[in-house]
Amino acid sequence: MSFVSKVVIVTGASSGIGAATAILFSKEKANVTLVGRNETKLAKVAALCITKHLIVKADISKEDEVRNIVKRTLEEFGKIDVLVNNAGIMIGGTIKAGDILSAYDSVMATNVRAAVHLTCLCADHLIASKGTVINVSSAAGIVVQSTGDMLSYSMSKAALNIFSQGAALELSKHGVRVNTVSPGPVATDIIMNMAGSDTTITWKDFEGITLLNRVSEPEEIAELIAYLASDKARGITGSNFVCDNGCILKR
Ligand code: NAD
């Protein structure tokens, strides 16, 4: 895979899958816009990028900050070839306690609305470059998570899946491909934050919910994202790639 002179935007690039993705695209010669809320963390990831890169500090749940990502990328690089909507949050909440509603609002704003907004803002530029979008969803968008209190997260990822299909449908006539990746457990912050203050939860618990008895490394997901963004995947659009170590099948 080579992304020489391509311009890639990665949201949530300060950690986990987003960081691995930004570093991989850079290794494959792309220029990268790294988007996140924490400049110190972004700078550490940027230090591992060997091509031209741009750090944009943005909270993607805020519209003006989303606009700034596109503006700054175009000022710096003049075009956009790949958009990776990766940033995501997981907030617990149940129907019985009623706190699912506030969780829903926050989770939808980051996991869905921001991805939709960024795709809209990038659309003309992706059409001009015959570019591509990869949305990072989750196995939880296909089957509700068994913990039970992550329903708003599952709902957001299911919405993202349908958005990806619709975007693929609409943008295919302009030569833009849109695909989704749906990981199971990956060794990143988001999953351990799920455990909260419960110190009895370990990686073994997450391994145990998969058929292959393993948790993915962020780099494995980054490789799939890069493949889908590459010309090797030129025939693939509107697809959802489940990469979950057999997590869904085990349920
Ligand atoms: P992570 O917590 O390391 O990464 C999420 C990133 O999104 C963080 O850098 C975070 O700061 C950023 N982010 C969150 N809200 C933001 C906002 N409002 N503005 C800007 N940035 C924001 O965890 P990760 O596993 O790398 O998560 C990446 C994606 O993968 C997420 O969409 C997540 O839902 C998805 N995913 C993760 C797993 C897993 O087990 N780790 C499984 C399935 C899907």
Largest sheet descriptor: 7 strands, parallel
Number of domains: 1
According to CATH, what is the class?
Alpha Beta
What ligand species are in this complex?
nicotinamide-adenine-dinucleotide
Structural class: alpha/beta
Q: Give the total of beta strands.
A: 7
Based on Cα principal axes, name the global outline: globular
The CATH architecture is 3-Layer(aba) Sandwich
Q: What share of residues are in beta strands?
A: 5-15%
Question: Strand order, biggest sheet?
Answer: 3-2-1-4-5-6-7
CATH homologous superfamily assignment: NAD(P)-binding Rossmann-like Domain
Using the CA coordinates, give the radius of gyration.
17 Å
The CATH topology annotation reads as Rossmann fold
Could you state the order of secondary-structure elements as H and E? EHEHEHEHEHEHHHEH
Averaged pLDDT: 96
CA(first)-CA(last) distance: 35 Å
How would you describe the overall organization of this protein?
It is a single chain. The protein is α/β, with parallel strands linked by helices and 251 residues long. It has a single domain (7-249), classed as Rossmann fold, CATH 3.40.50.720. Helices cover 46% and strands 14% of the residues. The protein contains 9 helices and 7 strands; from the N terminus they run E-H-E-H-E-H-E-H-E-H-E-H-H-H-E-H. It has a 7-stranded parallel beta sheet with strand order 3-2-1-4-5-6-7, sandwiched between helices. Strand 2, helix 2 (39-46) and strand 3 (53-57) form a beta-alpha-beta unit. Helix 3 (63-77) runs parallel beside helix 4 (100-129) and helix 4 (100-129) packs parallel to helix 5 (151-172). It is globular, with a radius of gyration of 17 Å. The termini are far apart. The mean pLDDT is 96. Nicotinamide-adenine-dinucleotide is lined by residues 11-12, 14-18, 36-37, 58-61, 86-89, 110, 136, 138, 183, 185-186, 188-191, 218. This is Short chain type dehydrogenase. GO terms for molecular function: oxidoreductase activity.
